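Tip: read the tokens left to right.
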């Protein structure tokens, strides 16, 4: 817990607007990706067909869509950012693995790896100084 407090102090001292923009862009990207999964269910079903032998396909579909939309909103606003990113990690690790097992698409693989790297960065960095987390922390 002390390490997290040290990381938060360092992040708040070294915050800048481009990182806040990157966090907001990540959140918006996840919202749009979740919305595209909901509006185009055949696309997500096609993606998940390579691992369809695992149980819980419908549960997985609903988890992916809900985690992307709700997590994207929370990441964009900066509210419980680390928890929202933790909810994204299984999806992103799964996306990387599916690109190796199923249809290999270099574009999708690179996109998954970039989003995973940005999420891992914000998992350690936190939401920054210009976020709802920081605002609520200062209200105490």
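Filled-in amino acids:
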């Amino acid at each position: 817990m002390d390490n997290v407090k040290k990381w938060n102090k360092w992040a708040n001292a070294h915050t800048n607007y481009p990182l806040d923009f990157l966090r907001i862009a990540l959140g918006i990207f996840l919202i749009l990706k979740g919305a595209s999964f909901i509006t185009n269910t055949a696309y997500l079903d096609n993606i998940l067909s390579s691992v369809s032998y695992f149980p819980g396909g419908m549960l997985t579909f609903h988890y992916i869509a809900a985690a992307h939309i709700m997590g994207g909103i929370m990441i964009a606003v900066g509210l419980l950012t680390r928890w929202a990113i933790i909810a994204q990690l299984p999806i992103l690790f799964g996306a990387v693995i599916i690109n190796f097992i199923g249809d290999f698409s270099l574009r999708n693989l690179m996109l998954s790896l970039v989003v995973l790297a940005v999420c891992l960065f914000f998992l350690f960095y936190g939401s920054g100084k210009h976020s709802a987390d920081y605002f609520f922390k200062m209200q105490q």
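The mean pLDDT is 81. The helical segments are 2-13, 17-39, 41-48, 57-77, 81-101, 106-125, 132-139.
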